[in-house]
Specification:
With 161 residues, this protein is α/β, with parallel strands linked by helices. It is built from 5 helices and 6 strands; from the N terminus they run ββββααβααβα.
Length: 161
């Protein structure tokens, strides 16, 4: 596994992947804060495309990512992650919406749990999932980070003037 750090407006993100795909993005704070494993190899070149696309995203120049991703978890969790990838830039949906979209309308709590275990936040846009009341709910990088990502997308998609 290769890793590097990327300085962003929300802090230094830990990126990790192999020769085939991106496996993980770790936040600098919150429950999804991660440190490199002892056997990981620091290599910015192996993650250059990820870094470039994330920099473009934070600059407001990229709305969709074109990267190979290693989505891990149970079959249910992966189905949630795949559905998250379908949420358009600058838009939000509820946990209940995701549950309905994957054909499990009563699995709202399980969708929330799968969303919270997303190993590739930002690119798999779990920040675009909010409570049914419209409230921002838990986020592995902290609610301030979730709010910052949603604000960035709203500003760059023309939703905020």
């Amino acid at each position: 596994m290769y890793y590097c750090y990327l300085n962003t407006p929300i802090g230094d993100l830990l990126l990790a992947g192999d020769d085939r795909a991106l496996h993980m993005i770790g936040f600098p704070q919150g429950s999804m804060r991660r440190d490199p494993e002892p056997d990981w190899i620091f290599n910015e070149e192996k993650l250059a495309k990820v870094c470039q696309q994330l920099q473009e995203y934070f600059a407001g120049a990229r709305e969709e990512f074109d990267l190979p991703l290693h989505l891990s978890g149970t079959e249910f969790q992966v189905s949630v992650l795949e559905e998250l990838l379908r949420i358009p830039y600058g838009e939000t949906v509820s946990y209940g919406d995701i549950a309905k979209r994957i054909g499990r309308p009563k699995a709202v709590r399980a969708v929330g749990a799968a969303n919270g275990r997303n190993p590739i936040p930002i690119i798999v846009p779990c920040h675009r999932v909010i409570g049914s009341s419209g409230d921002l709910t838990g986020f592995g990088g902290g609610l301030d980070t979730k709010e910052a990502l949603l604000r960035l997308e709203a500003e760059n998609s023309g939703l905020l003037k």
